[in-house]
């Protein structure tokens, strides 16, 4: 776990100085813009639905003072966080059920990484942007640390569309957030 944290911190430091796209990845999204700026007044579920692109494309939305982007390219949790930092944000932080619902729709019901992890200390859950933990939506029986190595959080797990702790090295699409 300490090695994972060290690698994550090193990756964040590198991402803040330089960033090289991996493969055919689009650093700025389909229309060559950063996380798309949208009307802050439009935070409804319909906003997330309308902003989504075709399968395999980025989906963007705004809620409150934050902009979000769902990136369908599967990455492990640390690489997803580095990608979000390179875009000027972090993996998404969820402080209430309305934001949770918004992000689930933004990800079109697909499983995706968010910025909650206990990779540094088991059962000490921390947000990737250092915000305090005030809300969770884990499924019944989660987080369970199955196999002793589930330290990262995904949304839209199971038919209940709740949160699950998962192995950080597994690859998932992810949601970035930028204030």
Automatic annotation (TrEMBL):
PROSITE patterns: C_TYPE_LECTIN_1 (PS00615), C_TYPE_LECTIN_2 (PS50041). Residues 1-15 form the signal peptide. It holds the Pfam family Lectin_C. SUPFAM superfamilies: C-type lectin-like (SSF56436). Residues 22-48 are annotated as: Disordered. Keywords: Disulfide bond, Signal. The keyword Transcription regulation does not apply. InterPro entries: C-type_lectin-like (IPR001304), C-type_lectin-like/link_sf (IPR016186), C-type_lectin/snaclec_domain (IPR050111), C-type_lectin_CS (IPR018378), CTDL_fold (IPR016187). Residues 63-177 form the C-type lectin domain. Residues 31-43 have a biased composition (Acidic residues). SMART domains: CLECT (SM00034). This is C-type lectin domain-containing protein. It comes from Knipowitschia caucasica (Caucasian dwarf goby). The lineage of its organism: Eukaryota, Metazoa, Chordata, Craniata, Vertebrata.
